[in-house]
């Protein structure tokens, strides 16, 4: 929808506002800043996105909605799997602090983003999939879903 707020890997979100005309939680293009509060807020958003895309806890996905108003989650399955294998090119371990964080998440277990229910799928083309976060929050085990 035109009023969607899209979450996903911050690299993927880079040009989405301009090309698809959709709001994003943040992106690598929006994150750099010279103003301290803006920088710190975007740093938190970057970590939250990485936790949702690469982390094993489905509660991190629901948190994007409650904290940042995200309505949809875009997952590029092949890119996520490449990062898990360690042969991804987006988040290298020495790319601090985010690369190290993604490596830790990859070591913690299979990402929840790779096991999302098809009933919450809004759009798919090849390895790209967009999920409705409200639906995901409803279908996730209650132990993992934030308020």
**Biggest sheet: strands, sense, closure?**
5 strands, mixed
Strand content: 5-15%
Could you tell me the number of beta strands?
5
Radius of gyration: 14 Å
Global morphology: globular
Structural class: alpha/beta
Low-confidence stretches: 142-147
What is the tally of helical segments? 6
Sequence of secondary-structure elements: EHEHHEHHEEH
What would the keywords be for this entry?
147 residues; alpha/beta; five-stranded mixed sheet; 6 helices; disordered C terminus
Short précis:
This protein is of the alpha/beta class. The protein has helices spanning 16-19, 36-54, 59-68, 77-85, 98-108, 133-139, and strands at 5-8, 23-24, 72-76, 121-125, 128-132.
What are the SSEs and their pairings?
Layout (H helix, E strand, L loop, with lengths): L4 E4 L7 H4 L3 E2 L11 H19 L4 H10 L3 E5 H9 L12 H11 L12 E5 L2 E5 H7 L8
Parallel strand pairs: 1-2, 1-3
Antiparallel strand pairs: 3-5, 4-5
Helix pairs in contact: 2-3, 2-5, 3-6
